[in-house]
Structure formats: C-alpha cells, structure tokens
Amino acid sequence: MEQAIDGTAHKDQTMALVDGSPTSSMGPMLVDPLGPAAPIGTVVRPTFRTQPHRLKGRKQVSGCDLFRGRWVVDTSYPLYDSSGCPFIDAEFDCQGYGRPDTQYLKYSWQPDSCNIPRFFGKVEREEDNVRGGLAESEHVGIISMHDSCCRAHCQDNFFKAELRDLRYFVRPFKLHVNACLAASSSSEEPWMATVTLDYGLTLYMYRTPYLVDIVRENVGDVLNLNSIEAGNAWKGMDMLVFNSWHWWLHTGKSQGWDYIRDGPALYKNMDRIEAFNKGLTTWGRWVDQNVDPSKTKVFFQGISPTHYHMQYKKHNSFYSDYFYKTRGKDWNQPQKSCSGEAEPLSGSTYPAGAPPAVGVVSKVLSSITKPVYLLDITTLSQLRKDAHPSTYSDGSGTDCSHWCLPGLPDTWNQLLYAALIM
Question: Where is the Trichome birefringence-like C-terminal domain (predicted)?
C-alpha cells in the first residue's frame, strides 16, 4: 500500500453517497410510502413488517440451480416495448437510439435442471403469489441499492410494476406514480425513484455505488471503508436488494472520491480489489448487526460483468488502475468489441472465467451469519455480449458495460421473482 496521508475528519460530518455530493445519512425520500407524495426534502420513515414464516432466507431454490443453464430463442420476447416505458434512461434505450437488430431481444434463460416461472403468469394459488412470499402485511417495502449498471434492473422492475398483468403479482391495483424519477440518474439525492401501488407494494431505488459511505473531510471527499451510516435509511424494509463493484474500478475524474480511509489511515489510492473486499466486509457486518431475518429478506445481486478485457497498470507494488482495451479477447475474438454482436455465446461457461470481484463476493457472503440470497447473475450475463448498448444510447463511444432495456435485466428480475416464489 501507499504511505498513509494525515487527514483529520470534521465533526458532525455530512455524507456524500453519490459522486461526493453531501446528503444526510437518511436522505430525502421522494414519496410517503403510505400516503400522498411528500415534497422533496421531506424525510419519512417506512414501517413495513413481514410475517416470519413467509421469509425463507435460503441459499438454494428447491434444489434447482437457477443460474446454470443456457440462452434459448423465445419468440414471446421482448416482454414490453421500450417506447411505452416512461422509466428507461436514455443510456439503456437501445431501440430508441436506433439499434437496427432485434434478435438480442428474443432470448430467455433456461436453467439446466428446472424451469423458471413466467413473471406475468397467472398465480393459481394465493400461497404461490410473490406477495405471499414476502408478507401478508398491509404494505410491502422493497429497496434496491444500486449503481449505474444495475439501475437498468431497477427501472425494469418499475415498468413491470406498471403493467396490468402484474395484477397477479399483488392484488388488483390502481398504480400511483408519485414523483417517480423526479430525481434523474444524475441527481445528487440517493433516493432515485419511488413507485407506490395502492394494494401494498412500494419499490425504491437508492443509489449508493460503493455501499459504504463517502464523507466530506477537510482533504476532500473520502471513501470510508469502515463506515456505512447510510444503512440507517434501509432499515424497516421487507426486502433489500444490494449490489456493488462497477464503480470501484473508476479512476481519475470519474471516481467518486479523492481519498480512501481505512480506520485511522488515509490513502490517496489503494488496490481496488482490496478496497472492495474491505468495503463489502463492512456491509456484511451491517447486515449481521441490523437485519432481522424474521422481518427482512436480503438479496445480493452478483457482479454485473463488462465485455471489455481487463488490463492492469501497476503502481508501487499494487494494482490501482484498470484499463479496458482488448475487449473481445475475453471470448476469443481479440479484435472485436461488443458493437455489432447480435447473439449470445453458446453453452454455459465463459471463456475468460469470472471477474476477480466474484471471489470477494463469495468470501464476504460466506462470512455473514444472517441469510443472504445471492442472485448469481454473472456468468449468464457474461454470455450476453450482444446485450449492451454499444453505440446505441445517448452516450459517446462504445458502451460494453451497461445493458439495453428491454433486455438482460428482464431475466435478472425473473430470477429474483423465482427466488421469491419457488
């Protein structure tokens, strides 16, 4: 590691959870989940509760490995038209930005040892209802803690919550969208969006790319690997869905902090794998100390992969900078990027293997004593080299890290649904 730098933290610090922007540990919610929309800046506390016997907290689903399988052509896809969805950010709207091919929209995930339930299929028995898998209480609250890669997952969930066929997901409802996405993806507020369903389900997006806190100190914005005060805002929910990793790799102007704090020591930089391990370990302790499994179900969404090939630059005996250069080398086509890819890789394994962060996630999850369900979407997503925006978004360059909507995140949500009801 580099030599530690002296730095003194301010008393009564405010936190910067998103790109170094200060906010309170609670953060303002956009809407009162049990009533009409509240003004931006109004802090309201959800009071959702779940019946203990409805929470399964298992690491496996009915003996089936949902995450080992293959992609198959499915003519019933896509599940919706992006032009009719008000929640999709421009960076994910590949069709809206002129992507000419549509075959990438027509694949569904087929596990080797079972079938996954259709998200829009009618539930014949009340006990099969995903609401039954969560609670019989008056209101169910779900927060997804996300970064930019998994924001598509959240937005996909919001649109599915709007569709009429979701009358089988919870009881028939009239949808109220209260200030939904009033804070855009570039907003400094961590509470990104809220959808309230009159009959009992509220979905929240909470943007916290590192899970641990970014704190304003006298030296600048500091990523504190040992602090997770933001977690105060996550308590009391029926279900929590976490993910992290993508932003740990960013350097220079695109990273969200100036320094890293590990205990009393302050560093200008650190091996990003080591930093991720320390930060995720702090999150694991938060789960053990703050989650009541009888009231809250916890999911961790696995690493969302890129289709760039990692190149490392070494600084003072540790790796700190990650460059993505050779791209198609990961799938044995070193001269290619994800641009122009129109179909998934065949089979169930990825030639380059798992990203290094997968091992960190596995290690940390195994150390947590409370039940956490891993949505192991990494390998099945690695096979989808065709599912990125590439040049079809509002961004510049070729994007081989985010995902088109409709697209791969539809499958992530189906697997979450399966984990709840199977």
Answer: 186-418
